[in-house]
């Protein structure tokens, strides 16, 4: 009886794992803006809904919105110029730009569907409008690249795999560990893809893409000497990003 029960559990576990792989294959989606095939299990409308629902909580975590309409209008102007001058305008996403009050955290990030944030701490470090465009262009790249949606699909995939493994044998913890690694924010390839798209958006909007190089230098200086080495981080080292940005500038400007 025990042996029969174990066999049934293994069969159920195998079936669940097989279902996860079949579902992943069926979710293969071509992104026309990056020309990349991705594992996506949601529509653009669902991405927009997730971003809108999550935006208030994200703002609250960073002290709310910065209470200066002039600065907010400035962020809106730069962001909308980037969108309206590029293929981002052709996407179904609703791009909205938010200046966060956080005076200490040097950061910018994007939620799925077009909600984009930059902290006052980062804005205060930037030296000109072109650098602001570099930061916002990079974040628009994350939205257009559907990086959050891709991570959500990966999370669902590993969650299903974990369930199947747990049913079939006591190895769910290992699979859960793999899934968690997948979920540690945007990966290196995502960051580099967004840098490249950001360069393109800057050029299309009349901004100097070389200023994105200076943004990387600002980020590196802000991180200080104790920055986590690249091989231990999900983000590429700023020096590596600078080289890739230079390559993108040469490619897009034909130099």
**What is the residue-mean pLDDT, rounded to a whole number?**
79
What Rg, in angstroms, do the CA atoms define? 21 Å
The poorly predicted ranges are 167-184, 229-233
Number of strands: 5
How many domains, as an integer? 1
Measured distance between first and last alpha carbons = 73 Å
Count up the helices: 10
What kind of sheet is the major sheet?
Answer: 3 strands, mixed
Beta-strand proportion: 5-15%
Strand order of the largest sheet: 3-5-4
Anisotropy-based shape: globular
Order of helices and strands: HEEHHEEEHHHHHHH
What structural class results from the helix and strand content? mainly alpha
Bin the helical content: 55-70%
List the helices and strands and how they pair.
Blueprint: H1 2-26, E1 28-31, E2 36-39, H2 44-61, H3 69-84, E3 96-100, E4 108-110, E5 115-119, H4 120-123, H5 129-144, H6 147-168, H7 172-182, H8 188-204, H9 211-223, H10 238-253
Parallel strand pairs: 3-5
Antiparallel strand pairs: 1-2, 4-5
Helix pairs in contact: 1-6, 3-5, 5-8, 5-9, 6-7, 8-10, 9-10
Question: Can you give a write-up of this model?
Answer:
- This protein has 255 residues and is mainly α.
- It has one domain.
- Helix content is 62%, strand content 8%.
- It has 10 helices and 5 strands.
- It has helices at residues 2-26, 44-61, 69-84, 120-123, 129-144, 147-168, 172-182, 188-204, 211-223, 238-253, and strands spanning 28-31, 36-39, 96-100, 108-110, 115-119.
- It has a 3-stranded mixed β-sheet, with helices on both faces. Strands 1-2 form a two-stranded antiparallel sheet.
- α3 packs across α5 and α5 (129-144) packs across α8.
- The protein starts with a helix and ends with a helix.
- Keywords: Hydrolase, Membrane, Metal-binding, Metalloprotease, Protease, Transmembrane, Transmembrane helix, Zinc.
- Its cofactor is Zn(2+).
- The chain crosses the membrane at residues 6-22.
- Pfam families: Peptidase_M48.
- InterPro entries: Mito/Outer_Membr_Metalloprot (IPR051156), Peptidase_M48 (IPR001915).
